[in-house]
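Protocol check, entry for the methods section draft. Step 1: assemble the input record (protein sequence plus ligand SMILES). Step 2: submit for complex structure prediction. Step 3: store the structure tokens unaltered in the notebook. Ligand used here: zinc ion. Step 1 record:
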Amino acid sequence: MLDWYEPTQRDWTEDFPHENGNYNCKCLMCGEMFIGHKRRFTCRVCAEPEGDPEGDNV
Ligand SMILES: [Zn+2]
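Step 3, stored output:
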């Protein structure tokens, strides 16, 4: 577990309990490192739509 780790805004904290949820990944959108499931390819900041509550048609 990552009890010592302080998650950042980019990390997928809900992935942490999962078996493959603690991978160091590099975001393809912003190039920043984040921690999440190994199959994720963007950080949480880039994945979440900004200011558009109906922006789920991607
Ligand atoms: Zn990003």
